[in-house]
Write a structure and sequence with these properties.
Layout: H1 3-21, E1 27-28, H2 29-32, E2 44-46, H3 49-73, H4 92-96
Antiparallel strand pairs: 1-2
Amino acid sequence: MSITSAFVLFSVIWFMVFLIAIPIKLQTQGDLGEIVPGTHAGAPEVHDLKKKAWISTVVAFILWAMISSIIDSGMITMRDIDFFNRMDPETSDEISE
């Protein structure tokens, strides 16, 4: 796996984890009963984004290490996920690698 591929994989995993973590323990203005005039009641009041970003980084790194090691080891290849058989059949050169 190249450096660019590793960075893209980490970025995708990080954003997925971060977007899952954002609504966890989110307190809105409506929840706290302190709605600022001109804002929506669902606007966040306490969000702890810095803490969630660090937690997302740690979780994403662990997931990235596991996924990249699976990819680098060859346990899962593109042929394993070719459900529509669009790839050419394996040649003897590919099998020996």
